[in-house]
Amino acid sequence: PFPEKIMVSILVTGANRGIGLGLVRQLVQEPSVSIVIATARNVDSAKDLKAINSPKLHLVPLEVVNEDSIAKAHAKVTEIVGANGLDFLVNNAGIFNKYKLNGEMDKAGLMEQFEVNTVAPILVVNKFHDLLKKAAGNKGSAQVANISSALGSIDFAPQMDGPPTTTIYSMSKAALNMLTRKLSLEWKADKIRATSFCPGWVKTDMGTEAAMLTLEESTIPLAKQIIGLKEENNGLYYRYNGETLP
Predict the structure, then answer these.
(1) What percent of the chain is predicted at pLDDT more than 90?
(2) What CA–CA distances, in Å, run from 151 to 108, 115, 174, 210?
(3) Burial class (CB in 10 A: 0-12, 13-18, 19+), 95
(4) Is 89 helix (H, G, I), strand (E, B) or coil?
(5) What is the pLDDT of residues 203-220, one digit of tens each?
(6) Model confidence at 2, in pLDDT bands (50, 70, 90)?
(7) Which GO terms fall under molecular function for this chain's record (predicted)?
(8) Are 24 and 48 in contact (CB under 8 A)?
(9) SS3 168
(10) Confidence band of 97 (pLDDT split at 50, 70, 90)
(11) Could you give the CA distance from residue 229 to residue 239 in angstroms, rounded to a whole number?
């Protein structure tokens, strides 16, 4: 009998636009990747995502702040990947709410920033732990990639002292980076690794047209970095092009 083809699966949250959409476009073209699961809050209205023509692509509804939605997505992904488990989970969904520390504040907006950028990735990785562990058991490792930002680096904050509206966003990403580090330690025994990435300042809805990079300039190297991650990258923090961040 022929050996079974090694199926490599990757799930990307928030794939309807921006970095997530760009990553999915690149990942379906990667020969080593067999299954790309793209999630969006509303799959039906994700026109750009639905326009990607690939037999590898599976669209799954997922509202990352909703536990019921996460559970339903987990069940669906379990059907898709089966006994192979899930090799890569990319926590990409994020929002950017602008606040000045000496400006108008509202608690609901602050909580939303942390709910989407920090709490949601915890809920998602927690729910998908079993599928990652299954893949790691089969192949020796599985990988979580958290899409962070250089704005989340505490060491880097003085250099990133641009618009004063980034503080709350920066805090949410700094907390996400701590999740990466903690996952790399707590899930080491399960052979599940975690790494943070800054995709750069990209021309997206969030990054605006003023940004330095096109979507392709960020996501072509970023997709390759993610699927090429090794044990020595566990718990660390990189730019889209592989440079390390403090």
Answers:
(1) 87
(2) 22, 18, 8, 17
(3) middle
(4) strand
(5) 877 777 777 799 999 999
(6) very low
(7) oxidoreductase activity
(8) no
(9) helix
(10) very high
(11) 13
